[in-house]
Specification:
about 300 residues, alpha/beta, eight-stranded mixed β-sheet, 8 strands, about 10% strand
Length: about 300
């Protein structure tokens, strides 16, 4: 897929979500007026596509006001669905801006193990490199040797410095050293990997609080961002993760990964509707350049089937 444009990959990634929704809308076209059973069917289809019950109810209510919309074909239905989705996504489509002064801007990246957190850090680093920012990585997930090793490999590929300690080392101490080095060498962005263990929320909360205290000694504004990485293939479970990590870590923004090839792309919309947190970027593949800020109207058009 590397030869495809971003829009083409995005279209392919959300294809199953769009098709599932389209199958349920197509049987309603040509009707002079939608009845309650039709509206129920649409609402169920939206929930099945993981847009969530609140968003589904919102679209149902809008269609209830326009019951004659299906008479002119499926495009009228699709347009209303797209409009409602876009209205929810536009306020949260916020790219991660590097504007901290003094530098570096410290970004804590959190997420459960298996969410694609470490790889997403590398993709974020690449995104910032494209904007000519100096980037440094910090292997703060010291509980997993594999995470440290993986981040070192990415740092080498991207030709960026990395601060890492031994497995089981003190994360806060490593972060402290990284900030000092980044400040001394003029680094713009410091991206910190953190442990993804939710089995013991108190332990994770204490660790993150310690990191924040240490950062505060060097720069009272740090961390400037606490970004939660979510795996779209987990569907509604991703929403539960937002609840927990907001409590534990004070999440300031989201990155949604693995939107490619899943019928659960609607969870992006559900997350926006339910939490209203900035969604900084989305990922639709495995290549280093597949993470990008998104256009709310484009996403809405694809999910609704207006963009095919």
């Amino acid at each position: 897929m590397s030869g495809l444009s971003w829009s083409e990959r995005l279209l392919g990634g959300l294809k199953r979500t769009s098709e599932r929704l389209g199958e349920n809308l197509s049987g309603l076209t040509g009707k002079s007026r939608l009845d309650d059973d039709d509206l129920d069917r649409i609402e169920d289809a939206l929930i099945t596509a993981d847009l969530g019950p609140t968003m589904a109810s919102r679209i149902r209510d809008r269609l209830s006001e326009r019951r004659d919309v299906a008479a002119n074909g499926i495009d009228g239905l699709r347009t209303i669905v797209a409009e409602e989705i876009a209205a929810v996504l536009r306020p949260v489509a916020e790219p991660l801006e590097i504007d901290a002064f003094p530098r570096p801007q410290v970004i804590l990246v959190i997420g459960v193990n298996g969410s694609g957190k470490t790889t997403t850090i590398a993709k974020l680093a690449h995104l910032f490199q494209e904007q000519d920012y100096g980037v440094m990585l910090v292997a703060g997930d010291t509980f997993r040797a594999a995470a440290i090793g993986q981040l070192k490999v990415w740092a080498e590929r991207l030709s960026v410095p990395i601060m890492a300690g031994p497995e089981g080392g003190d994360s806060a101490g490593i972060v402290f050293d990284a900030v000092k080095q980044a400040t001394a060498t003029g680094i713009d962005v410091l991206i910190v990997d953190t442990a993804g263990r939710l089995q013991n929320k108190r332990e994770l909360m204490d660790e993150l609080a310690k990191i924040k205290r240490v950062l505060g000694r060097l720069n009272p504004a740090a961390p400037h961002d606490v970004v939660l990485v979510l795996d779209a293939t987990t569907g509604q479970n991703a929403l539960a993760q937002i609840d927990v990590f907001r409590e534990v870590a004070g999440v300031t923004g989201l990155v949604m990964t693995k939107l490619d090839g899943t019928a659960r792309g609607g969870v992006l919309v559900a997350a926006a509707e339910r939490h209203g947190l900035p969604i900084h970027a989305i990922g639709i593949g495995e290549t280093i350049d597949d993470l990008r800020p998104f256009d709310a109207d484009e996403i809405a058009g694809i999910i609704a089937g207006n963009i095919r």
